[in-house]
Amino acid sequence: MDLVDFEALDAIIAPEAEAMGLALVRVAFFGGESDPTLQVMAERPETRQLTIDDCAGLSRRISERLDALEEAGKDPIEGAYRLEVSSPGIDRPLTRPADFADWAGHEAKISLKEKLDGRQRFNGTLVGIDGDLVTVIDKEEVEHKLPFDAIDTAKLVLTDKLIAATVPLSTEGADEMEEEGQD
């Protein structure tokens, strides 16, 4: 399962998302041998979110495409796995250069593939991206310029400011929902 070709998967999945007017945020594979999972995160560019119908539609499109490739003997993933299609969520991963510009002013956690100036992890406020350099200011007010290609993982930190900046698509029916197991 270690040999998943993410470029090939992106080339298969991105057109399916784009055909629905969605932007692909991340394609990841995790869970190892016990629970192999292909995770696809996408969003509507205008809302930065995804509806349940969007998730279901994209899941169907990806499944049909991967099933057809498997039948043709060109399955990009060996063995059985679970497909998970979701929104990036409020404390979303930052995976594209535009994400670092779009979420400037918000707090983020960034891990590098290798140490830079003796550090591998940076927490602070995103300033943005200029060329291929992501700028973050840490809690000590020190500015760090991190090469985009050196970033292993980056995600927003859940803060009151982020919550205020993330408007729900719709709260219609929310007051009618009951928690499972309650009467």
In a nutshell, what does this entry contain?
It is found in: Cytoplasm. It is built from 4 helices and 8 strands.
Description:
It is a single chain. This protein has helices at residues 6-19, 52-71, 97-102, 160-165; strands at 23-30, 37-43, 82-86, 107-116, 119-130, 133-138, 143-147, 151-156. α1 (6-19) crosses α2. By secondary structure, the chain is of the alpha+beta class. A five-stranded antiparallel beta sheet has the order 7-6-5-4-8. It has a three-stranded mixed beta sheet with strand order 1-2-3, with helices on one face. Mean pLDDT is 89; it is low at 177-183. It is 25% helix and 32% strand. It contains four helices and eight strands; from the N terminus they run αββαβαβββββα.
Helix/strand layout:
Blueprint: H1 6-19, E1 23-30, E2 37-43, H2 52-71, E3 82-86, H3 97-102, E4 107-116, E5 119-130, E6 133-138, E7 143-147, E8 151-156, H4 160-165
Parallel strand pairs: 2-3
Antiparallel strand pairs: 1-2, 4-5, 4-8, 5-6, 6-7
Helix pairs in contact: 1-2
Domain Ribosome maturation factor RimP N-terminal: 12-91
Function: Required for maturation of 30S ribosomal subunits.
InterPro entries: Ribosome_maturation_RimP (IPR003728), RimP_C (IPR028998), RimP_C_sf (IPR036847), RimP_N (IPR028989), RimP_N_sf (IPR035956)
Mean of residue pLDDT values: 89
For the record, give the distance between the C-alpha atoms at the N and C termini, rounded to a whole number: 44 Å
Shape: globular
Low-confidence stretches: 177-183
For the largest beta-sheet, the strand count, sense and barrel status come to:
5 strands, antiparallel
Strand content: 25-35%
Please state the structural category.
Answer: alpha+beta
Task: Compute the number of strand runs.
Answer: 8
Helical percent range?
25-40%
The radius of gyration computed from the alpha-carbon positions, rounded to a whole number of angstroms, is 19 Å
Give me the strand/helix succession: HEEHEHEEEEEH
Q: Report the total helices.
A: 4
Please list the strands of the largest sheet in the order they lie side by side. Answer: 7-6-5-4-8
